[in-house]
Design brief:
The complex is a heterodimer. In chain A, strand 5 (about 45-50) and strand 6 (about 55-60) form a beta hairpin. Chain A has no helices and eleven strands. Chain A is mainly β. Chain B is an all-beta fold. In chain B, strands 2, 5, 6, 10, 11 and 12 form a six-stranded mixed sheet that branches. Chain B has a four-stranded antiparallel sheet with strand order 3-9-8-7, with no helix packed on it. Chain B is globular, with a radius of gyration of 13 Å.
């Protein structure tokens, strides 16, 4: 089946630094990818929709200058958390939509801890 | 805009008993409906989906869900619960004319041995 990978699986960074999370579709092309955020014991909140070769579409309340999304190829989207603060600590999950089948597949998630 | 409601934060079921996890939805058009399961510190695992056709959908690990258009519900069911079914379950919806999958808040399922 289709596989979506995320790297790193977990990361600890200091407050004020930036962190990049990669999302890759391993065996299919994904024109569209999605980034979700999950707080402990809470649901997944959609942050943004990433389209290959164009600007991401952010959900209301998500700071686009803080959460930079780049979708430079059909198999890779990146989320960069800039000037991270402890309140950015969360579980970030990406999802990739197969350009042919339109099926959507989820990555295993990245746990970010900002100290 | 689409939305999903999971009215129960937690459901407790004795092992071997049938289980039901409730979900209702709201969309402007025709819905695509999904159930996912999440184990601690893990990503989402797909269980099943409804797109069109038969209202009873069978999925992974013996789970099934019934689409009820009049009640706008998509409850998850299993005839006989296992302790290993204990996890966090998410119902999700996508409006047919939209890109986004929106999730409910999740229901924690505890299967008691």
């Amino acid at each position: 089946g289709a596989v979506v990978s995320q790297h790193p699986s977990w990361v600890i960074c200091k407050s004020g630094t930036s962190v990049k999370i990669e999302c890759r579709s391993l065996d299919f092309q994904a024109t569209t990818m999605f980034w979700y955020r999950q707080f402990p014991k809470q649901s997944l909140m959609l942050m943004a929709t990433s389209n290959e070769g164009s600007k991401a579409t952010y959900e209301q309340g998500v700071e686009k200058d803080k959460f930079l999304i780049n979708h430079a190829s059909l198999t890779l989207s990146t989320l960069t958390v800039t000037s991270a603060h402890p309140e950015d600590s969360s579980f970030y999950i990406c999802s990739a939509r197969d350009s042919v089948s339109y099926e959507q597949y989820f990555g295993p998630g990245t746990r970010l801890t900002v100290t | 805009a689409q939305s999903v409601a999971q009215p129960e934060d937690q459901v407790n079921v004795a092992e071997g008993n049938p289980l039901t996890v409730k979900c209702t939805y709201s969309v402007s058009g025709n819905p695509y409906l999904f159930w996912y399961v999440q184990y601690p510190n893990r990503g989402l695992q797909f269980l099943l989906k409804y797109i069109t056709g038969d209202n009873l959908v069978k999925g992974s690990y013996g789970f099934e869900a019934e689409f009820n258009k009049s009640q706008t519900s998509f409850h998850l069911k299993k005839p006989s619960a296992l302790v290993s079914d204990s996890a966090l379950y998410f119902c999700a919806v996508r409006d047919m004319g939209d890109d986004k999958i929106i999730f409910g808040k999740g229901t924690r399922l505890h299967i008691l041995p």
